[in-house]
Design brief:
This protein has six helices and ten strands; from the N terminus they run αβαββαβββαββββαα. By secondary structure, the chain is of the alpha+beta class. It has a domain of 139 residues: Peptide Methionine Sulfoxide Reductase, Chain A (2-Layer Sandwich), CATH 3.30.1060.10. A six-stranded mixed β-sheet has the order 7-6-1-3-2-8, with helices on one face. A two-stranded antiparallel sheet has the order 4-5. Strands 9-10 form a two-stranded antiparallel ribbon. The N and C termini lie far apart (52 Å).
């Protein structure tokens, strides 16, 4: 009995708790699509953060940025590695929004939850500036409440539900691809980051 209890204790003591990273990179559909396949990531949730409004919605989130909360296993991928990938998935030189999405809601940001995250984020920003030879405008901000977006925004990029778009009725996944290509997101990221662009 004692041996079994000891094995269980050691197993629990050796378990690594999942951690979360909160980032804003323009359209949250795109950031979710980029990070769900990453090894060590178990969940990515689209939502809003950074503002004062309570219970923001997609139609009314003034002051908030579109953002995602990434749940990850730090034994597989570190917070710093996630932030480095994030920076290489957006235009870190654009303070007015991202790609075809303009305005405050679509700015980039890294929302840190403790001092260790702040140091890792600042180190990743400094490294990105060295690579680009330019000032990165993505700020490191203290995390506040993260508000989950409506259910229809979650996993938008892989949904087969039909929606009406300017190009006619499309599956959500096809509407997402059309939107992403039309906005030039991947083209601009590759132009800016070259071989370091994420995802490649």
């Amino acid at each position: 009995m004692f041996r079994m209890a000891l094995v269980m204790f050691l197993g629990l003591a050796g378990a690594v708790r999942a951690e979360t990273a909160i980032v804003a990179g323009g359209c949250f559909w795109c950031v979710e699509a980029d990070f769900e396949p990453v090894a060590g990531v178990s969940d990515v949730v689209s939502g809003f953060t950074g503002g004062e409004m309570q219970n923001p919605t997609y139609r009314n989130h003034d002051g908030h940025l579109e953002a995602v909360m990434i749940t990850f296993d730090p034994a597989v991928i570190s917070y710093g590695e996630l932030v480095a990938k994030f920076l290489r998935s957006v235009d870190v030189l654009d303070a007015g929004g991202q790609f075809c999405d303009r305005g405050a809601s679509y700015r980039t940001g890294i929302f840190v939850q403790d001092e260790a995250q702040r140091k890792a984020a600042e180190a990743a920003l400094a490294e990105a500036e060295a690579v680009l030879g330019a000032k990165v405008v993505t700020p490191v901000l203290p995390a506040g409440t993260f508000w989950k977006a409506e259910a229809y925004h979650q996993d938008y990029y892989k949904s087969s539900e039909i929606v009406l778009t300017r190009a006619g009725p499309k599956k959500k996944s096809n509407a997402y691809k059309f939107y992403r290509e039309a906005c030039g997101r991947d083209d601009r990221v590759r132009e800016l980051w070259g071989a370091e662009a994420f995802p490649r």
